Amino acid sequence: MGQEHANIAGNVHGGEIMKLMDDVAGIVATKHAQANIVTAKVDGLEFHYPIHISDLVTCTGKLSFVGNSSMEVYVEVIVEDIRNRREPKLASTAYFTMVALDDNGRPTTVPSLELTNEEEQSFFEAGKKRYLEKKHK
Known about the structure:
The chain has helices at 14-33, 118-135, and strands spanning 36-47, 56-66, 70-80, 89-101. By secondary structure, it is of the alpha+beta class. Strands 1-4-3-2 form a four-stranded antiparallel β-sheet.
């Protein structure tokens, strides 16, 4: 992270990290849906550990649930102080709800999620539960 991403104390702005996370969620959703994607919602955004200028930041995302046109993507940010060789730490996590759009800007159906093991099935079921809880509010 560079100076342009931080405040005068050298702390990276949360909005900069959110943007990185949103980019990752969009890439994951686009790769799955092969369609135009928009962010509909961000849930459970947490900043667990600070990020500073010159830290190495790695963002990863994975689908946790797929509905008809929406997808929930879990994104985590790992931060590493590479100058001082400190162990990587979990810096931030969130669930992004992404929606696939057709060429007219309307929600479009996305492929179902292929689950290959029990861990993926469990992750999917937890995502489905969150989805249904939001839907009934």
